[in-house]
Specification:
The complex is a heterodimer of chains A (about 130) and B (about 200). Chain A is of the alpha+beta class and about 130 residues long. Helices cover about 20% and strands about 40% of the residues of chain A. In chain A, strand 3 (about 30-35) and strand 4 (about 45) form a beta hairpin. The two termini of chain A are about 30 Å apart. Chain B has helices spanning about 35-50, 55-65, 75-80, 95-110, 115-130, 140-155, 160-165, 170-185, 190-195. The longest helix of chain B is centred in the C-terminal third of the chain and has 18 residues, at about 170-185. Classes of the chains: A alpha+beta (about 130), B mainly alpha (about 200).
């Protein structure tokens, strides 16, 4: 059974699509995830790796925001496809490195990514 | 006169709401300095946002069953005054249960004030974009004015950490930073995040 979950907030929307392995409506396998920010153009999209990376980056950054102590991810670890960095006290940059499925000669080693600057209020809506 | 420290209630008799926050290993001298400063400053920001918050904090302690830890106004003042920056700093330690009670109170109040905090931060963004001073915004300048007044009347100006906030601009910056933190406390796991953040990076 295919399931779509929609988490809609005033400035941000998260759409998850997957299917349930049993009768209960539990999204047990994720197929795609979309993250929309109001006024920030096309949504960020990806699969499980993107979604897990988004959750990890947001959670880690939220903790860092509150404590002021750099998260373990910033101390040399790699968070994955999504990273969030502080630009100044009230501005935060989310960067998304889109994975390339089959790099061709022209695409080789050319990073394909996007960065979105979020205010604290926008970022909080992702948490 | 040194008062005898009240024994910490055993975990079995502790209010169950405290179980929402995990126990953290702390030294015998109680919660670390940064935790004591941070939680008191967040409550100070709440007081500047919401005029009746002092009374409401006491009401919350009753509603949430925290009376065993914060029985009255004096106890609340004593616990908050473990903040080493306070003029009337209490040298007694801040116990884990007391810190949990303050965290819970701060997060309940922050949730209640979510709309107001969000609006002030959004309006502040607009002011920045237009390069206008905060004084142009009535509610924001009221908040910052009250925050500065609370900070100056309660913090000890001879402490180095307090001297760092020797201008209106620096105190405004602190007040705005605390607003951002309060907004993060209102998230789904905001209370747990705030609690853990008070001890992040501390070595026991």
């Amino acid at each position: 059974m295919t399931i779509q979950r929609l988490y809609d907030l005033p400035n941000c929307k998260l759409v998850l699509e997957g299917y349930s392995a049993d009768q209960r409506p539990v999204l047990s396998a994720l197929m795609s995830a979309e993250c929309h920010f109001k006024g920030k153009g096309q949504p960020l999209t990806g699969g499980l790796e993107f979604f897990e990376s988004l959750v990890r980056a947001v959670s880690s950054y939220a903790q860092e925001f509150l404590s002021g102590v750099p998260s373990p991810l910033d101390r040399g670890g790699k968070s994955g496809l999504v990273e969030i960095r502080k630009i100044r006290g009230d501005l935060h940059r989310l960067t998304f490195e889109e994975p390339m499925e089959t790099p061709t000669e022209t695409q080789e080693n050319v990073p394909s990514g996007r960065s979105i600057d979020l205010t604290t209020v926008l970022l909080r809506q992702r948490i | 006169m040194e008062l005898e420290k009240a024994p910490e209630p055993s975990s079995s008799s502790a209010p169950s709401i405290l179980d929402n926050l995990p126990d953290i290993a702390i030294s015998n001298s109680g919660c670390p300095r940064r935790s004591r400063i941070q939680i008191d400053l967040l409550l100070l920001a709440i007081e500047a946002l919401y005029l009746g918050s002092g009374e409401y904090m006491l009401k919350l302690t009753k509603d949430l069953g925290l009376e065993a830890i914060v029985p009255n106004r004096v106890a609340l003042w004593r616990i908050r005054s473990t903040n080493p920056l306070r003029r009337n700093n209490q040298r007694s330690p801040l116990t884990l249960q007391e810190a949990k009670a303050l965290t819970i109170i701060a997060c309940y109040l922050a949730k209640r004030l979510t709309a107001q905090v969000r609006k002030l931060l959004l309006d502040y963004q607009q002011l920045r974009l237009k390069q206008l001073p905060v004084e142009n915004h009535l509610q924001l300048s009221f908040y910052l004015e009250r925050f500065r007044a609370h900070f100056r009347s309660r913090m000890n100006p001879r402490r180095t950490a307090v001297m760092a906030y020797n201008s209106d601009e620096k105190l405004n910056e602190l007040g705005l930073e605390l607003l951002g933190k309060l907004l993060f406390c209102t998230g789904t796991a905001g209370m747990q995040r705030l609690w853990i953040s008070l001890f992040d990076g501390e070595v026991v």
